[in-house]
């Protein structure tokens, strides 16, 4: 295993920052045993309707409070160490992962702009969460100009930059609140910001710099490109740029302040930041090429290593060392998966069947195609392959005989079809996908997992940890602390996966082939210009909401 002797007596902490909470996990270096965990819910959660001070937000906004991230260190880390029953003095390193692209503007010393009193009521001063989609018009302009100028980097991102990424969000700040933009001396991923809080040193990780910051072959987009977007946007790279370090490297040492927050020893190794999906490849023993990891929760991120570089249409990007050093890391994703199922249970399922367990039980009794439905999985827009967050969901085939379990199963299947689209795009571009490792909270739904195996026609392996990202962060912390020479060795020693838990059934797979063909036809028609009704409806909705907000229009009352 190439680990350091005596590693059984040493421990690392992994901290996984999710959309609604942060989780800390204490892991034994010697064998990856998970000894204690704790969760801290964000006090402000996702800020989507109004700032804590009361200022209302437009549609498609999603912000967060950076103090919630510090509180995870203050509460979850000590609680996890206590639950593990280990001596904090035996902890040798800490690593973190984060949602992405989740970014915030700060002063030069890392102070978030939303924590300066005069900017606290300015929405653009707050953290922009990954699912902040209000920058779609700015992303559209970036993409159009990149193709007009034949920018060499655009092909590495499947031909489109996402509204979720750094440049679209930064351009939105500049054009909607130039004072906040000018005050922002740094514009930094939350992953790198929290590492800065831990070790007092500003660093940038190659993962987010490559996938979300358009860093390719050592270069960001040129100043000429940025000023062509907006004459005042030319300094954006200066706000993004910082000391760039590979994954698994040591960003610095835990400061006295952070040691007081966490209860961990001052001076231990702090690993370079990482993304929740990408870091999971290590815990899933999937750093070798050809094994795709799908981290399935509220959304899904798909990551796979390849031996060669290729341009894959509609992907989130390909980055040298973006998942692990020595390979080209590919990323794709679906903006809504578990969120879609949760929406149906919470808002559409009638009493008596308004639970995932009951709907899954009813849906599992159906034959493939028995509900007569096809759904498009765009309830939170489309990340891959279409890279358009103004797209919306659809269900085709409903009749008076349609029942809630029919719709629920169709929604499950729609996300599997979306994953198959992504896999086929990889394979068509020459990036092998031999099998899948599934991680995240949705692995406990056996019906969903079997649907994915049947639809994709590939075996599904299941990560053996319920905390894949946190374990992955702990693995990277072990490397940063010098316990292993590389992520590959640490992954083999500390990662775990159950092999081929779900296998495709030939008969069901053939039935799904026919349904997938219908999904693909709808996908291309509504997503590739056959009918832009979804985009027009989004524009009508936004205009109506903005007009109502501007005039303080009261909702209509229904008179019996």
UniProtKB/TrEMBL annotation:
<keyword id="KW-0547">Nucleotide-binding</keyword>
<dbReference type="InterPro" id="IPR018483">
    <property type="entry name" value="Carb_kinase_FGGY_CS"/>
</dbReference>
<protein>
    <recommendedName>
        <fullName>Ribulokinase</fullName>
        <ecNumber>2.7.1.16</ecNumber>
    </recommendedName>
</protein>
<dbReference type="Pfam" id="PF02782">
    <property type="entry name" value="FGGY_C"/>
</dbReference>
<comment type="pathway">
    <text>Carbohydrate degradation; L-arabinose degradation via L-ribulose; D-xylulose 5-phosphate from L-arabinose (bacterial route): step 2/3.</text>
</comment>
<dbReference type="InterPro" id="IPR000577">
    <property type="entry name" value="Carb_kinase_FGGY"/>
</dbReference>
<keyword id="KW-0418">Kinase</keyword>
<keyword id="KW-0119">Carbohydrate metabolism</keyword>
<dbReference type="InterPro" id="IPR018485">
    <property type="entry name" value="FGGY_C"/>
</dbReference>
<keyword id="KW-0054">Arabinose catabolism</keyword>
<comment type="similarity">
    <text>Belongs to the ribulokinase family.</text>
</comment>
<keyword id="KW-0808">Transferase</keyword>
<keyword id="KW-0067">ATP-binding</keyword>
<feature type="domain" description="Carbohydrate kinase FGGY C-terminal">
    <location>
        <begin position="293"/>
        <end position="481"/>
    </location>
</feature>
<dbReference type="InterPro" id="IPR005929">
    <property type="entry name" value="Ribulokinase"/>
</dbReference>
<dbReference type="InterPro" id="IPR043129">
    <property type="entry name" value="ATPase_NBD"/>
</dbReference>
